[in-house]
Amino acid sequence: MKYSLGPVLYYWPKETLEDFYQQAAKSSADVIYLGEAVCSKRRATKVGDWLEMAKSLAASGKQVALSTLALVQASSELSELKRYVDNGDFLLEASDLGVVNLCAERKLPFVAGHALNCYNAVTLRRLLKEGMVRWCMPVELSRDWLVNLLNQCDELGIRNQFEVEVLSYGHLPLAYSARCFTARSEDRPER
Questions:
Q1: What is the pLDDT of residues 117-147, one digit of tens each?
Q2: Measured between alpha carbons, how far is 60 from 66 in angstroms, rounded to an integer?
Q3: GO molecular function, one example (predicted)?
Q4: Contacts of 23 (CB under 8 A, 6+ apart)
């Protein structure tokens, strides 16, 4: 069993993130996810900053996965995603099917993030063909669902071809919004 530390889903200043990941480098976590997974408008930390933090974590012996946006809506976001995909060193956590497609085009392995809404073995088989090496179970699924799904994977002969990751501690990332950060930055109430 490995322990993973998921990406920070809150908006923290760059310096706070750097301090956090310096501490994470000393933690017992085997895998560390980092990157902007919520909102592209939170630009205090740039792609280059994330990559530098990833290099530092890798140098400390951690396996690093770069987390990507769950909602890709603009061409600027797609351009930024391509920089992540073309990083050359780190595994990507695909939280959007666009990232899966970019990785598959380049024959790169990826982690299927919990935001992909993958609920059955047939979908897992498809993602496996595209390059998936690890699947993060959607947070709303139960243990019984997981057991059933893994049994389906056994029946398809694919169970031992990918790792499985489940959320075991922390706040559940249940919803994503294209408007939340913008509304807050403009002092507009969220409805």
A1: 899 999 999 999 999 999 999 998 999 999 9
A2: 16
A3: peptidase activity
A4: none
